[in-house]
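Chain and backbone:
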Amino acid sequence: MKRTIILIAVLFLATFCGKEENLPIYDDNGVLLFQKSSWVYSLHDNDEFRSNSFVDFPIIYEKSMLMPTTASDDKLYVSLVTSNNVFKWKWNDLFVNSSKYIDISYAYQHENLLTWQVGGKSYCIDMNTGLTKWKIQRNRSFHSSIFGIDNKYFILGEFSQYPNLEILVGYKGNLQTGEIEEFLIPNFSFEHIIDVRCCDVAEIEPVVLDGVLHLAVIYQELTSSEIWNFQSYFGLYNMETEDWVYDRKIMNEPRLNGVSMSPPSIHNGKFYANIGHEIACHSIATGEQLWLRAFPNDFMFSGFIIEDGMLIALCEDGKLYRLNPETGGVVWTGEGAGTSSRMSYMNGVVYFVGGSTGKLHAVDAYTGETVWRLDAELIEGSNAEFRTNAVYVIPGQGNEKGKVVALTHMHAYCFEAYR
């Protein structure tokens, strides 16, 4: 009888302690610091750390996520993992002379095809199978920025007429074959050249107007040969007529690094861009600037998003801003973090990993209130932190909450979404 009582007590204590370990932890302000993950996926075979590649933007295909992983052969891969923690395939079909790291800074995805650019090397993989659709090593260098619509994609590469100058112009490509051709060359003035750089096409955002494909374009030029003052311009290019509808619409006053710092966005017939320390809004129909708002710092790492009629911008001043996209007015200012990941959004909540904190943040987009600041040390142990890799959000089915997936150096953790 005594032995039975002792056994029951031990089982009770074990059960109680197990519940304590899984209980959520909040700070004094009610911000969630720890919650048990729904599942954990090791990014390394045998859970042995090797190195990490990087996927900057969340790449999701049929509720599966493209993640940087490694294997026991010491190769670095990108792997497709389902939202239910099932491995589907891994890819490492790099050119022989390539870096072993797979850093996907920008990518274009259409249906089952995903393409990205690294210098002069272009890759396209089939997301169904994980097999290479095509890969091409080109004879000139290209920027990693990539844009697209349907089976057309656009990249920025060296200007063939001036191969000795670092001038970027637009190239159009076929997603099925990878073939490209130079085509988009703004009316650059070439008035100032310093350290072989003077002007660039910076962003190309496809937009369909009256059934015709157009390109909203940012390009920039030096305004002085003595200091790095740049001025950015906005233009609209008609792909059917192969001509500019308008160009050289001024986006900013010339200033040091007055260039595009993060990907633009199109919303309700308006074009939104981050130029230096400013966010600008232009009418796509006319090119006229509707508003311009200055901030203490730039948005190079996290950029901005427009979701559910809200413009959310994460500034390098460590603050998160919600703006009215119609007027540029500040609705609220909340807690951000420096050098952070790109933001992901789901059901009125913004998720990001703070580069200066190493924590997974969640902010209520309606109020600006921080609701999560998940600490990887409480999950994985001493010195662990979440990486500024992509944060993946997967909507739930029916009444179920969605899923949020963030990466440490060792693992991918899936959490039930805030709402």
About this structure: The chain has two helices and 35 strands.
